[in-house]
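Trying the structure run again after the queue cleared.
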Amino acid sequence: MWLSTTKTSNEYKDIDNLVSENNISIEDKLNSKNRILECLKSKNITSTEIKKLPISEIVDIANNTIKSYLKTLNESDRNKVERILKEDDSKLSLRYDIIKEDVIDKLNSLKETSEEDVVGRINETLDKLNSENYSKVNYIKLKELNSSL
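Done. Tokens:
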């Protein structure tokens, strides 16, 4: 055999002993059962090391992530995102609510004239819209959805 030179250990020997119909002594079966129970009862102690980073380092990581994302956008999209990020939240929140109502109306009118599978996707989108609250990221996504409808 091709495994004849390989030495392996059977890690499931206790399970094999317990369920096997071979002539295994009751004592071996009980020992196997007890080892399995002990293994199941034992708590796996895993240590998780928590790294405490200073706020300045976290801010630097966030800024670098945003910069690298903005570099992937074309010039016009980058300008749109930067304008939205600089915009006042209260104004954007009002616009978000208006656009959200408009998108919901558009989706409901599309739902009436669409096929079954499309209606399912529209319902998923409506559910997601109704569950989401204002954020700048959600505002950008909603604005893009509105323009594509």
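Residues 40 and 149 are 55 Å apart (CA to CA). Worth checking whether this holds up in the mutant runs.
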